[in-house]
Amino acid sequence: MIQDNNNTHTTLKQQFSVPFEYPLHYTRGSLAPENLRLANLIVNHADHPVILPVLDDGLLKGQPRLPEQLKHYAAAHSLNLLPPLIATGGEACKQNTELLERIYDAVVEHRIDRHAYILVAGGGAVIDAVGYAAATAHRGIRLIRMPSTVLAQNDAAVGVKNAINYAERKNFLGTFVPPYAVISDFDWLDSLEARDKRAGIAEAIKVALIKSPEFFQWLYEQRQALARFEHRAVETMIIEGARWHLDHIAHQGDPFEMGSARPLDFGHWSAHKLEALSQHSLRHGEAVAIGIAMDSIYSHKAGRLSDAALAQILTLLTDLGFSLHHPALDRLNVHQALDEFREHLGGRLCITLLNGLGDAEEVTSIDADLMDASKQSLSQLPGAA
Ligand SMILES: NC(=O)c1ccc[n+]([C@@H]2O[C@H](COP(=O)([O-])OP(=O)(O)OC[C@H]3O[C@@H](n4cnc5c(N)ncnc54)[C@H](O)[C@@H]3O)[C@@H](O)[C@H]2O)c1
Ligand SMILES: [Zn+2]
After folding, report:
1. In the predicted model, is pLDDT for residue 5 greater than 90?
2. Ligand 1 pocket by C-beta < 6 Å: which residues?
């Protein structure tokens, strides 16, 4: 029944929730015709929904047969595959809108609609940028992610965030939109440069330090095998890292980061700044390793973290081959960077510190002089120039 509104002020309430679910497959030979993981994802197969592939050029250099494999795979499974777009790999593709525009143009040209798929294969940077394009074109096209770096397989491609940079601000334009599915092919990791193999381990260490003492101890014990990039250790590390990232997103009550607590960003306040200060010559994971070391040293200096725990963290990072000092650190003005970070968070600082291995706490104030001293300590570590 329609009620006459005789009130001056009216408040209606809207409430609904939408469950999200997506599979994450870890496999080898993902494009061998007998591997059904990709083919089985395509629904309404009979209607031949189009699939727009976007491929990272660094991945293609390492895996030159990939376009041909994809074509054969599509033929074997009657998939309606469009010619692939090639993206410049690495942070460059997030620095401007060139890749986005090519994707939007392809969406228009091929009349890609919300029943179609964008299939992105590449590192975290290409996945972030293509994810942003897929989330915004037609207000969201299904995105299948095929991450091809250690970092993307255990972190960047498993969650709900997509972004590009704007005016030197990392991830300034972005969305929280879950993928349709994720397929990680371990075979692809073989062609990564050593530094990219290593960089991805930083995010697994980060998530272990904030969530799981057992996972941290396992990483510590496996550090020699991980440094040699032994397949079994690396694959276990990737799956366990992904599991903890997924667990955090689903179960900490804030998957779309409405609040200010961002423990998954442990070590990241300085890492993002260092990436920009290095003109992106530092990889994200390399910067995160430095950021983890700095915030762990601070946690120790602030009386939270024991000598033994700090020693284990620094040993793990250096034994893996991370360099914990970089010329960009000299250009990092800690006081200014903390102020900027506070502004970025809307006026209230929120930084994750460690009380132990696998035991994190959010704090709202940081002693900038002590943080600066923590930064200085990095240059006194073994191996520092
Ligand atoms: N969305 C998220 O939640 C999230 C989380 C963590 C990191 N990130 C983002 O991820 C990005 C870093 O990703 P990354 O560490 O994967 O590095 P990257 O994407 O910059 O790739 C590094 C290099 O490896 C090349 N490459 C990719 N796959 C290859 C392969 N199999 N063989 C040979 N070369 C290959 C790329 O072309 C690039 O040159 C950053 O932009 C970071 O902000 C996003
Ligand atoms: Zn990160």
Report:
1. no
2. 56, 58-59, 62, 89-91, 94, 122-126, 128, 148-149, 151-152, 155-156, 159, 161, 188, 191-192, 196, 199-200, 283-285
